[in-house]
Queue: 4 jobs
Job 1
Amino acid sequence: MSRSRVVVVGAGFAGYQTAKGLSKAARGRHEVVLVNPTDYFLYLPLLPQVAAGILEPRRVTVSLTGTLPGVRLVLGEAHHVDLANRRVRYTDPEDRPGELGYDALVLSVGSVNRLLPVPGVARHAHGFRGLPEALYLRDHIVRQLELAAQSEDEAERRARATFVVVGAGYTGTEVAALGQLFARSVAARSADGQRGVRPRWLLLDIAPRVLPELDERLSRTADRVLRRRGVEVRPHTSVKEATPDGVLLDNGDFVATRSLIWCVGVRPDPLVEDLDLPTEKGRLIVDEYLNVPDHPEVFACGDAAAVPDLTRPGEYTPMTAQHAVRQGRVAARNLRAHLDGGDRVAYRHHDKGFAVDLGGVQAAANPWHVPIAGPLAGAVTRGYHLAAMPGNRVRTATDWLLDAVLPRQAVQLGMVRSGSVPLGTASPELARTPPDHTRGEEHS
């Protein structure tokens, strides 16, 4: 008898958990194929620590083939799904086309950077969604501070030492908090009399406060920590235009900078739009069992799916890793029920709290909705990450220990250049904006 083939598209939090659940229960009865551009699962919450030189890049990556026994990995990026003929078309890392047939499909393609129609952003800003962006930002911070120390022009020195982060959600807040500490340590070691530079960090958001999705007490804690360190927190503020020399804010202020870090949020992967199925704000509509309506063989979960929130009737679950992990587990169970028979389970989840790393021993967390701050929150946050990571726990804990007792290495690795991490496009207007080839790498 031929085995049924299950194709899982995407190895983010949802896809990884789906593949893991299938690898344990479907071994021998079904062929499980995982399509993903890389051979690793990326633990996104710790990317800011990679950019800040706290963790080595490999600490936030987990081998797919090493941790998913019985799952066949196909390296490639899916670009089309033929629902009628049950085919997935993809392109491999060498730009060769490929195609896979399936008996059951799980769409867990995740999300990409969300852009706004702001002139110059697609050309001059850098996002923060993957390992290349984190490595690039680490080098970029070091490079700008070194070039600032070399410059004879005071205005240029100030501009190179200024870093603007747009978006005060989880990612933007952590990037600003950890980046400011990293930049300050780099500048302190490279200071040479008048050549010393003082890094300046700005955190902008149109919301009235940082971390608007969290409890106000946690928001105030994060705001207080950031301001005490010298980060300029500017609520009710957005970027009106980005230029090679800086950013124009909507209040008329112009901030001279070579560093615009875009953390305004995410949108579902464009593959979802290509399906020509009902969506909710770009996310594929599914039922409470994570099934795509009228396609019992197709499931969707994670950021790509609009999953009904049974704890809040009429709403959908937010695009968070916490939901994606649990949706992946439910998708695996319901897919096994679809193939082998059995009862399905509806996705229902109550948030157990959140944690935001603010660098050093500082954090803001509300485990089980009990707000805490300071060193205790820092310990809880790192403990949570160690428990949630599917691998590399000992190595990650070792890096944290070494960072506490040794100075960070502040040298450019030169592994990722600016052109390798485009922010991407979100609209036809932005898509018509050509890439900027006029600025040298030292200005990017």
Job 2
Amino acid sequence: MKTGPTLIVVALALAAGGFAGYQFARPPGDAAPQATAETSAAQPARKLLYYRNPMGLPDTSPTPKKDPMGMDYIAVYEGDAESDSGLKISAEKIQKLGVKSEPAKLQVLDKSVRASGRVEIDESRTYTVTAKFEGYIERLYVNTTGQPVGRGQALFEVYSPELVSAQREYAIAAQGVGQLGAAGGDAQSAMKQLAESSLQRLKNWDISEEQVKALAKSGNAKRTLSFRSPVAGIVTEKKAVQGMRFMPGEMLFQIADISAVWVQADVFEQDIAAVSVGQKAKIRINAYPGEVFEGRIAYVYPTLKAETRTVPVRIELANPKGRLKPAMFAEVDIPVADAASVITVPNSAVIDTGKRQVVIVQLGEGRFEPRPVKLGARGGEFVQVLEGVKEGEMVVTSANFLIDAESNLKAALGGCRRRSLLLPSQRVLGTRRRGR
């Protein structure tokens, strides 16, 4: 029997099979040291970008940390799919959504203080018509509130025994001075003093110069005397009634000149520091849509209304045609100049959730990232960004709500998927941490 050669052949076959099985079962990572070195040399070290929330929430950190559940934040390297840190949208979908973007700009913010107000009568142009003697109203020429009157227009006629007596006294004294003109001496001097005192008495009662001259010329005292309007305006209050008796100092008419009016604006407490006397203001009235009236701040009141937390501001406004009526509602816009340039984005780019403000930043072609921002002062069309966006970054101004909603949906689905991949012990640990 030739058993020697046969045993040698069987041994060689077993050795070859064992080596092939080892090579087949060896993990890919157990490569030869030389191959590993070559692979490491071919792949340079990747750049660490940031650490992202493991549950898919829009929260990143520059350093390693843990979330409230105790899970480690995941490192994101340059070139990873996660480094896109946002939402990828195809060009076709961008066109359908109507996405528009604008760069964040460094510019002087066109700020303005806005307030509501109302048209009021200028108190310095309000006049009260009253008598300085006792009498009776014989006749009324103006007998309705709101009636327009001209300067010097007769308002009413009065009868007063005192007035008639004073007229007669002056008429007699004036005639006596004329008759004693050639006589001279103490008689003429005494008559002049009587005439002057009578004239002064009539003037103190607000008798017009025209009426005094007519009295001196005719020498006849009139039974009634007309009271005239001291200014052109409208009757805002009327207490005079035909036939009534009035006492000295009693208000009979109140007339307001409305060729200029006030606008009383209620400026909020946080805006009052930007308002000062002399600033120009733009007024819009609901009755005249599209028309802007210009005025000037004349006074900032020193008191604050505790109920509304507003400070009254008085604005003077010309009203030559009387189009602005007292008690009309007004929208006030006070431009505020600011010399400093700040980073701004359009108002339409900001999504305000009530708890935070978010801006959708376009990272590249079809890549978008919701980014929380901290806002500052607001202008007419732009708002200042204090944190979150840099100058030149593209922000979405149209369809940003749709992109934000899709990003939130993606984050929620990603969080659910990661939650389902956790080991049972990790889920229990997270539940316990939340319970604390």
Job 3
Amino acid sequence: MKKIVKPILVAAVTVISAAQVYADGPKKLDVASTFGTNNFLGQVAVELGNNISVATGGDVSLKVHEPGDLVPALEVFTSVSTGALPAGWDWVGYWSDIVPVTKLYGSLPFGPTPEVFSGWMWEGGGLEILQSAYDPYNVKVLPCLMNAQETAGWFNKEIQSSADYKGLKMRISGLGAKVIEQLGASPQLIPGAEIYTALERGRIDATEFANPLVDINMGFDEIAKYYYFPGWHQSASWMSLIINKDIWNEYDELAQKQITLACKATLQRSMAVVTAENMKALNKLKDKGVDVRRLPEPVIQDLKNAWGEVRQQEIKDNPLFAKAYKSLMSYQALVKEWDELQEMPRDSED
């Protein structure tokens, strides 16, 4: 009897041990970033890693790799999906050819404020819709950075009317690309690390990338004359940590909650610092002689009209986009009603 029982006990202990290892998940996640750590968008991935380490008591950490070190930037999603890489750090809109609804999360023209977008994502159903689109690709998504409203971009010629977009070769991504296409422009999708060279060599005439806090480290002011506002094409946009779901499921429930908590903390801090830091960076660019301008109001209106056409086509062609857009607009209307009730003159120092 002892000879029979003993192997069973050993086998049971082995199974328990294996289950415990499986529940704990990997201690270190290699993360392929689509942004360099020389700018804010990449630096936040490092900060997220620090927050995860704190939240998990050092049990989980991230190793953030520069763009191209592991795979080309625009192959990160596919690599995470197949399990070739455990994790990535991205701009959600990069994957719109694979997951069309990410257009809305990455760059919604004339969309809501970052505060509204953030509330909808985490508390209004936005994350559930996005995750449902990622599930078929075996990818877990954690939106951990909300980038504030961008600029209209860097241009080598003045934009005096919407006719100036005709024939313009511009690096721009997402739904904004479809909008300027309506005005006769030629949009180009170019990863961040390659934009400077493309602009310098004349492959493109203009580019948008992010906002002053990020752009100041990209060197665009060296080769572009005009810096236009507002960022009509991207009022807010998401960067996320994506993890292969097989890897994610190896973590127990506590570790998953700790990682999610670290993600939310990273989001909160980024939203707290970005507006003031953007203005500081913009003032530095002005001091360097950058010509900062606002697009003429008729141009903004023409862009908005073009967006209306693009939006209706997206709603018609993509049921999940239609669902997400309706959900976001309902959430925004709810918040707007509250804001209107609370509207009052605000104190300020002259």
Job 4
Amino acid sequence: MAKAITTPTDSGSVRPEIGLIFGALLRADFTVLLRSGRTLLLNFAVPIFILVIIGLRTKGGTSAFAGPGFIIGLALTYGLMASSLIGYSNTIARDRDAGVFQRLRVTPAPTWAIMASRLAVQIVVDLIMTIIVVVLGGIITNTVFSPGQYLLLVCVSILGGAMFLAIAQALVALVRSAAVINAVGRILYIVFLLLGLLGASGILGTTIHAVANWSPVGAMINLYAGVLNLSGWDWTDTIGLIGTAGYTVVGAFIGIRWFRWDAR
């Protein structure tokens, strides 16, 4: 039997190697996620449903609003936002209320590893969702993507997943009550979605359209569409990149700076 690698601490006790600790956290978090039907629904069923419904209704459309880039970008953005603002934030809030984080903090696991494991699991699930949606989206829209486009879509999904996770982490940091987090997360979800969709359509005027381009949903949709048509990259796509990176940095700062490990 292989002997576990340990590291002596300053107090003379022996602590397992960080690799073993992080691996155990990842296995535990993946197990919890796989047993959560709600989480799997938000990560996979919702974006696929949106992709199929919008893709079939706009099949054959020639406008930018009905193009493959918009349809696939919307479905991916929808899935990333749902899994973070509704799934991830609620899971963190419930675990904090239940004292899970307090119990984990008395284990040898560093605090950064506890949160990094949660985030890493969510990013991996987001990547799997991205591959499924892109492949299915290509079939529905009769679009063939090059290996480079697949890679760019994955990179955008990593950035988008990080952005929505950062926003969700900031929400959990600023709000202590799990019930309030659940309500606020749903409200933000609806506001972001409507602002992104209605703004992108242009039906609310140029001012709202400009504001929507800087919203999380608008930024992500534009960024997805931009990487699928690099030759047509313009200032709107650049706004998407700047906005996504900006939300990620600000959300991460708030989420780390003001996060509390207990609900009191």
